[in-house]
């Protein structure tokens, strides 16, 4: 069965009749879950099972970075913002890398236990002290440290059977505007990004990164369109210069920064034509239906192959996960984080 190229969201914690029909749409390829879809681990497991009853091969995803971006909370381990791991690295690299790998595994193992294929993580942006929307979602300000920590997080994800998604290519950390509500413009020369913002992407690609999400940011010296709609960034740089062969997911096409590309259908077509394999349309059901219908007959065998590789591998039940020695070890590592990092362990 082929994978469609549209990912969309659901309205609540249970499937509605109309949503069952959308899941069977030929262009449907993925579902992204939000906090409104979540009540408990048992409930989300039932919801994902119901999704797969309608569409057995559809991807199920979530943003579960940690810190302020963690959609499933009560019943899941509360993860720190990854900036806490960057601060830990400054006081001891080896310990920080070990804890980061353990937390990447923990995040992925808990999600795989309920049936989620992958989380949109890790964030590879730099903390340049400019972007509030990135801020403590970034591991560090230094690109080599971001690459090492994000690489450890990715290793942990892989060990739990979860592919990784690096975001937001080629780097969102140096612009102040929030692309959810405005259109950020980065005035730097492309060559300035190469040794800094692009470095973590280069390193993780070389070490098996499966997917990338581009930024809704215009890099004005390179292209007049945001990176997610730019053939220069997605084809010339990402595919040709960096040799990336994995899946490219657009950022949410309902974000204000995406409006520069036109109507929802025009945005989807522009993103796919630039090089995205799958487009996200969230929090706008009418727009999602328009895009699904517009792409119903679109066929891209190469994109479908890349999308198919994003399914999670293996799965341990929640009951047995809690007894896994590695699970207890990861929790112990999390408890070991200094309270001075502004994080307190919360679990149910």
Could you describe the 3D structure shown?
This protein is α/β, with parallel strands linked by helices and 348 residues long. It has 13 helices and 12 strands. The strands form 3 sheets. Strands 6-3-2-1-12-11-9-7 form an 8-stranded parallel β-sheet. Helix 2 links the parallel strand 2 and strand 3. Helix 4 crosses helix 13. The longest helix has 22 residues. The model has no long low-confidence stretch (mean pLDDT 94).
Order of helices and strands: EHEHEEEHHEHEEHHEEHEHEHHHH
Spatial shape: globular
Q: How do the strands line up in the largest sheet?
A: 6-3-2-1-12-11-9-7
Secondary-structure-derived class: alpha/beta
Q: Residue-averaged pLDDT, rounded?
A: 94
What is the makeup of the main sheet? 8 strands, parallel
- The N- to C-terminal Cα distance equals 38 Å
In percent, how helical is the residue content? 25-40%
Strand composition percent:
5-15%
Radius of gyration: 19 Å
Task: List low-confidence stretches.
Answer: none
Question: What are the main properties of this structure?
Answer:
two-stranded antiparallel sheet; single chain; 39% helix; 12% strand; 348 residues; alpha/beta
Question: How would you summarize what this structure contains?
Answer:
Helices cover 39% and strands 12% of the residues.
């Amino acid at each position: 069965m082929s994978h469609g190229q549209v990912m969309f969201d659901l309205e609540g914690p249970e499937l509605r009749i109309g949503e069952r029909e959308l899941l069977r749409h030929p262009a449907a390829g993925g579902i992204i879950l939000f906090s409104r879809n979540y009540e408990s681990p048992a409930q989300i497991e039932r919801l994902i099972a119901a999704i797969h009853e309608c569409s057995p091969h559809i991807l199920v995803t979530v943003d579960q970075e940690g810190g302020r971006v963690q959609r499933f909370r009560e019943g899941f381990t509360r993860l720190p913002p990854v900036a806490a791991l960057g601060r830990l690295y400054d006081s001891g690299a080896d310990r920080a890398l070990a804890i980061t790998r353990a937390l990447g595994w923990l995040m992925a193992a808990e999600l795989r236990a309920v049936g989620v294929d992958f989380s949109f993580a890790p964030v590879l942006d730099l903390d340049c002290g400019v972007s509030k929307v990135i801020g403590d979602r970034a591991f560090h300000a230094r690109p080599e440290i971001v690459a090492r920590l994000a690489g450890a997080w990715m290793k942990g994800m892989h060990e739990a059977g979860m592919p990784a998604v690096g975001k937001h290519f080629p780097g969102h950390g140096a612009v102040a505007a929030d692309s959810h509500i405005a259109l950020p413009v980065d005035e730097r020369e492309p060559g300035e990004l190469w040794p800094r913002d692009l470095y973590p992407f280069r390193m993780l690609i070389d070490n098996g990164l499966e997917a990338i999400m581009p930024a809704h940011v215009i890099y004005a010296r390179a292209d007049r369109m945001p990176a997610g709609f730019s053939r220069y960034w997605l084809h010339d740089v990402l595919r040709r210069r960096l040799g990336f062969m994995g899946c490219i997911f657009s950022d949410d096409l309902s974000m204000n920064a995406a409006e520069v590309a036109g109507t929802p259908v025009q945005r989807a077509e522009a993103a796919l034509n630039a090089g995205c394999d799958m487009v996200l349309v969230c929090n706008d059901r009418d727009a999602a239906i328009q895009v699904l219908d517009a792409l119903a007959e679109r066929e891209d065998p190469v994109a479908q192959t890349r999308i198919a590789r994003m399914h999670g591998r293996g799965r341990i039940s929640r009951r047995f996960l809690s007894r896994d020695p590695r699970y207890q070890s990861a929790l112990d590592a999390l408890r070991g984080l200094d309270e001075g990092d502004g994080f307190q362990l919360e679990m149910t």
